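pasting input
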Amino acid sequence: MTWNWGFAIEIFPIIASAIWLVLAVTLGAYFVAAIFGLILTFLRRTKYKMLTYVTNGFIEFVRSTPPLIQLFFVYFALPTIGISLDKYTAGILTLGIHYSTYLAEVYRSGIDAVPMGQWEAAKAMNFSKAQTWFRVILPQAIPPVIPMMGNYLIVLFKETPLLMAIGVHEFLQEAKLVGAEYFRYLEAYTIVGLLFLLLSYPSAMLIHYLEKRLKMKKVRG
Amino acid sequence: MDVYADILVRILPGLKVTLQVLIFSAILAIIVAFVAGFGRLSRFKIIRFITTIYVELFRGTSLLVQLFWLFFALPAFGIQFTPLFAAIIALGLNYGAYASEVVRGSILAISKGQTEAAIALNMTYWQRMRIVILPQALRIMLPGFGNNIIELIKGTSLVSLITLNDLTYHGLMLQNVNLSYTMPVFLVLLFVYFLIALPFVWLVRKFEKNVSKGVARI
């Protein structure tokens, strides 16, 4: 029993049909991560020490525990205290919150790179806090970290097979079902690997290109 | 509180499996990282080409897919791994690919003058690496390796999906039999994984501080 091209071509469309679901989950989770990451960034910079500690603890905890268990926690354990989510929402929220802790770190590096003078200038202009953040700091902090944010989009995309554990029909789950039907797994799982490679590698190249261009811009001043 | 003690006792056998997977795959990952890291800096185009393909292949597809491929697809060629072996190989090769970037980056981060000075002193390639480059590159690598180990710890929970009876697997079994345990089981699992990762979180912080210590600023 080795590779069978006919069978591979036959099942490719079935597995690939999950692409819209996978992209929707990825973008949804990334949206959650981007927004929640920004909230975390603000929370850890407040002047209330307690809030900073709690936020830092939360980030550390979420970052160092497996997303799979977090997924089970959200999908199986939360309903026992009255919070029931369907599998898609649970998946999007779990992956989103998990990667928000990474994005918070990215935002921080961007914000730290904004020169002190910008804060002082905003203060001298009598800008309010919201104006300082959204008109002065963030517009300068975000563009340099866009490649890093793009990297996490790809990482998040590659993390979506996890959702098969709660029965979301993404690539791997589709492949498993097809494989079980014909009792041939080689072609199905190879196609999944190929799909991930085909989608993530060009995106990684694009980000690499963006990064290079950004660096050149910096050199040119 | 009894519930938590009860759960802890019952999932403890899984800790042994998780640690086993963790230790062996970490060793494999570090070996692979150095081989691939040096391979990508090799003088020979063919070696660079092969290692680049390996690194991009494992970084471009996801860990769970690799795990499933090794365990469920490879038997088509007549190679049937045990779950433990498949887990160690998949985790080791996957995180080895990520860590090889750390090795490569750290070696490239050492200034060119060091290499030139070593060549001027008539050192061979291996002398240059062993005496001059690596001792400096290692301290840059350590925080990166630490982060990779934390990711690896998180990755080990996936082996439960290829029927290996690790912590997660024991937890799921326990939850299946006794649904009232659902909340406590997953809380205990989260905290146990956090405790395993915690020493590495601290180490990374310490290493990050050490990177710039005692190094001349140019």
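fyi Chain B has one domain: 2-211.
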